[in-house]
Amino acid sequence: THVAGTSTFIDDVPPRTDEVFLDIFASPVAHGRLKALHLEAARAHPGVLALLTAADVPGDNHFGPIIKDEHLLAADEVHFVGDPIVLVVAATRKAAADGRALITAEIEPLPPIFTIDQAIAAKSFIGPERVIETGDVAGALAAAEHHLQGTLTMGGQEHFYLESQAAIAYPGESGEMQVLSSTQHPTEVQSVVAEILGVPFNHVTVTCRRMGGGFGGKETQAAGPAALAALAAAKLRRPARIVLDRDSDMAMTGKRHPFKAFYQVGFSSDGKITALALDLFSDGGCTADLSPSVLERAMLHSDNAYFLPNARITGRVCRTHLPSNTAFRGFGGPQGVAAKENILEEVAIYLQRDALDVRAANLYGVGERDVTPYGQRVENNVLPPLIAQLRQTSAYDRRRREIAAFNAQSTSHLRGLAMTPVKFGISFTKKTLNQANALVNIYTDGSVMVTTGATEMGQGVYTRIRQLVADDLGVPFDRVRIGATATDKNHNTSPTAASSGTDLNGAAALDATGRLRERLAAFAAPLLNTTPQQLRFADNFVSQRDNPSNRIAFPDLVCAAYIERINLGERGFYIIPGVHFDRDTGKGHPFLYYTNGAAAAEVLIDRFTGELAVARVDLLMDAGVPINPGIDRGQIVGGFVQGMGWVTTEELMWDATGRLLSHSPTTYKIPNVSDLPEIFNVAFFENANNAISLKRSKALGEPPLLLGLSVWAAVKNALAYAGAGRIPPLQLPATNEHILMTLTALERAAAANARVAGAAR
Ligand code: MTE
Ligand code: QUE
Ligand code: MOS
Fold it and tell me: What is the 8-class DSSP label of residue 701?
């Protein structure tokens, strides 16, 4: 439907004749106290139907997934430029926008905080410091042969989903509210809408047919716009639509968390890390949102794929006066891994050794050196053979020699090469969320309708679940349909997140089809003069295994079963078994399994301009046994490129007042087709050993994004050739501008050294 152009998104739903449009008057001040609002001009504007403020919220104006510290509409304090204050309700989009432009507010400014450094200095934090610790770090640091210390700053990232945040609310009878929302988390939208309206959850139904992309940005932050639409719909008793324009969406919604990492590392001459002290600070923005969970996942991934005998990892969320940062593909994992991969790159430069040798020396072992700092044993570890294979197929060692020779003679360009692995933990670290339910209905013509809590955002979860159900019932793929995700069909759902959409909801659907098959087999066995155990569901028939011509067509069986009053619907339920994590001790078994992969990236840098080109990428992914290799490939390529964007060209810029400058496609640079690696080899690592997961498949919605870090590591490697042993102080993202500045700093330092050496002679 995407390719044919027949997929419908929120704003493709034709407006009802009585529908109203919404716009938001938002704070122009990052931090301040609301003193007065001037609404008269807007109220008098033709087409403006209502101006709603916090005082108009019938229920609780506050919400939030972990801490209820967000307001729907600001009542006294404003917390960022873009904080909603007045909801403008109008007969047309234009009248809403014109009305908004006529509103003014008097806001007494309060001192704002815009950076992690400022927040640390002001002790402006959200939640407590978190610690994960193993071994004796102080002792191991003191005893280490070599030491390095440093800091790495990492920028945020705009989600840039193609469909912006959008919702339509339809008021129903007796206080009911129907909401269409572009959301990864219909249940979250349902509960926020209900609490804003002050009605029980069962009065609110939220439906999501699909999203034009989510990437984590619609996990919690679809709730605000949906609640605004519901508020207007409840007040005016008319359907209400809100669709953020691109610039407003970019300016008002949260992004990937910027991080700052402080580290001290001890290591031996053979490159083995013996001690790591790592302090992670994230920029949570103005409210908690999912920041504590994002920080936790960052901490749980700061080992990446490497054994740490002694480690102390601390984490803290900083509160700033910027939009509240939120989930973004990887959910903190990329920041934790970036901190670790940067350290490995630096250890290699310090020891003048190849970084891949240093990485290989530190990998988790098989049967030894295999326990993470949080106490989970790394089982089925495929990384040592996977990396060895990629080292061969990417011709890493030959290209390393070529690059060294090239860099020794070229005065115009630098080349760099790096291979980074990923080991991404699959499961929500919040145990409760590791559950799902499904509803499977078989109609009398033998066609099947399935709904689950999974939302489709382009990642292919509907297709995968369709395949699983079709295969399990032995019916053709096109006999199965997935219904729009809705809270009245599937209740108390988890967000489609943590890459576990198929793992959870696919398993719940199979729980239901398993029971349907059992019931149908029991009914069919006497008809076919055999036993239920002898029956096989395949090719739209139910047949006897050792006598396949003894069979009945699935639609005929279903029809006969209906006549005999056999129940042809089932609910399924699934929980991920065995996962737990104790936040206070920092220990547990938070992940069912790990998804692994590695990428080798080669980059070319223009020494005069800093311009970066990615010459070649070889990527090898352990997807277990893919449910749909085509979809998996799409996720791998898309995730990698999105990760590459984060570490190279995507840079968020705010002015001194906290206003986002990079608020449009012209000022914020995501990768496009011409930025793809010139050579891009993507392969699957054959691995059927993941017996614990759904059909031996592995979740891979997020993990490939972390492989984009290979491009960043390759830039650091390239710059190291220009640094004559110095460690390039490369931050993330490595934009062309930043690469040029780093290169210039290295060249100046080298020149100064040469002068000193010359003077000494
Ligand atoms: N792929 C597309 N095309 N669009 C998206 O929005 N979101 C990613 C990933 N792949 C996303 C995507 C994120 S953040 C997650 S958590 C997973 O898809 C969620 O889906 P899954 O659990 O079904 O893989
Ligand atoms: C990975 C994730 C999520 C997560 C933990 C992960 C996620 C998410 C939450 C979460 C945590 C606490 C809550 C809540 C949600 O945790 O997406 O409602 O109260 O939403 O390891 O992707
Ligand atoms: Mo994905 S960040 O877990 O929505």
Answer: S
Mean pLDDT (the chain) is: 97
Q: Which atom belonging to ligand 2 lies closest to the Cα atom of 327?
A: 17
Alpha helices in 324-427 (DSSP H): 333-351, 355-362, 383-393, 396-409
Task: Please state the length of the chain.
Answer: 761
CB within 8 A of 715, min separation 6: which ones?
416, 603, 605, 612, 648, 730, 734, 739
Q: How many CB atoms lie within 10 A of CB 138?
A: 12
Instruction: Give Cα separations from 12 to 5, 481, 715 (angstroms).
Output: 11, 21, 43
Contacts of 416 (CB under 8 A, 6+ apart): 403, 602, 603, 605, 714, 715, 716, 717, 718, 719, 720, 721
- The alpha carbon of 290 and the centre of ligand 2 are apart by a number of angstroms equal to 7
CA separation for the pair 740, 725 (Å, rounded): 18
SS3 635: helix
Q: Which of 430, 455, 593 to mutate for ligand 2's pocket (most ligand atoms within 8 Å of CB)?
A: 430
Q: Evaluate whether 732 touches 711 at the Cβ level (below 8 Å).
A: no
State the distance from the centre of ligand 1 to the C-alpha of 243, rounded, in angstroms: 22
Q: Residues lining ligand 2, judged by CB closer than 6 Å?
A: 65-66, 219, 290, 293, 297, 327, 331, 428-430, 433, 495, 497-498
What is the per-residue pLDDT for 448? 99
Q: Which residues are within 8 A (CB) of 523 and not within 5 positions of it... i.e. 6 or more apart? A: 557, 560, 561, 564, 566
Give per-residue pLDDT as tens, 93-110: 999 999 999 999 999 999
Would you state the pLDDT for residue 751? 84
Point out the residues of the chain with pLDDT beneath 50.
none
Maximum pairwise Cα distance, the chain: 102
pLDDT recorded at residue 679: 98
* DSSP secondary structure letter of residue 735: -
Instruction: Say what the pLDDT of residue 752 is.
Output: 85
Torsion of Cα atoms, 486 then 487 then 489 then 495, to 10°: 80
Q: Give me the pLDDT at residue 420, please.
A: 99
> Is 702 one of the catalytic residues?
yes
Alpha helices, DSSP H, located in 603-732:
629-648, 703-706, 709-722
Compute the distance between CA of residue 645 and CA of residue 326 in angstroms, rounded to an integer.
18
Q: Give residue 761's pLDDT.
A: 62
What crossing angle do the helices spanning 223-236 and 186-197 adopt, rounded to 10°? 40
User: For residues 217 and 185, what is the distance between their CA atoms, to the nearest angstrom?
Assistant: 11
Whether 482 and 546 have beta carbons less than 8 Å apart is answered as no
- pLDDT tens digits for range 153-171: 999 999 999 999 999 999 9
Nearest CA to ligand 3 atom 4: 216
Q: Which residues have C-beta within 8 Å of that of residue 266, sequence separation ≥ 6? A: 140, 141, 143, 144, 145, 146, 147, 273, 274, 275, 276
Instruction: Report the C-alpha gap between 368 and 208 in whole angstroms.
Output: 47
Would the pTM count as exceeding 0.85? yes
